[in-house]
Structures are given as C-alpha cells and as structure tokens.
Specification:
The protein is α+β, with helices and mostly antiparallel strands and 84 residues long. It has 2 helices and 3 strands.
C-alpha cells in the first residue's frame, strides 16, 4: 500500500471531483517508482478511472491497476493498457 487515501463511496453521492481524482491517481502512479508511467494516460468516464497507453512489462498492467485502485477503490478502474 502506498499510503494514499482511498476514496470510499466513489461512485455514490460522495463522489470526488474528477480533476482531483485524476491528479491523485497520476501522483500515485508516479510515486510508485516500480513501473514506467510516461506513456500512461489517466482519464475519468462516469464513476471509472480509465488507464490508457503502453507499459514495458506484462506485470506493469496489473501493478498500475493496483495503484489506481489504492486511490479510488476496487472495481472503479478500467484498463486499456497495452504491453510494448
């Protein structure tokens, strides 16, 4: 766990501002240091965080999802990441 505050009830009435959520996920990905995030784009669609772009290692897809979920909660992250 990275120590970032998880946004609970993200999809319900306690929804967070999209720009703040996107910035929090981007910061968490950069802070992790164990994956290359230069080619990852974070966007928001409804209640979901969308990760798009490219990673170098297959395990990086799962790691990026894990990091994003540590911010917004399990089940609120969708990945469109591809391995180069």
């Amino acid at each position: 766990m990275l120590g970032f505050v998880a946004f609970t009830n993200y999809g319900e009435s306690g929804r967070r501002d999209h720009a703040a959520t996107r910035a929090s996920v981007e910061s968490a990905l950069q802070a992790a240091g164990d994956i290359e995030v230069a080619e990852i784009t974070v966007s928001i669609a409804g209640s979901y965080v969308i990760l798009e772009g490219f990673v170098r290692l297959g395990g990086d897809v799962e790691r990026a999802i894990e990091i994003a979920e540590s911010v917004v909660g399990r089940g609120y992250v969708r990945s469109r990441l591809l391995r180069r």
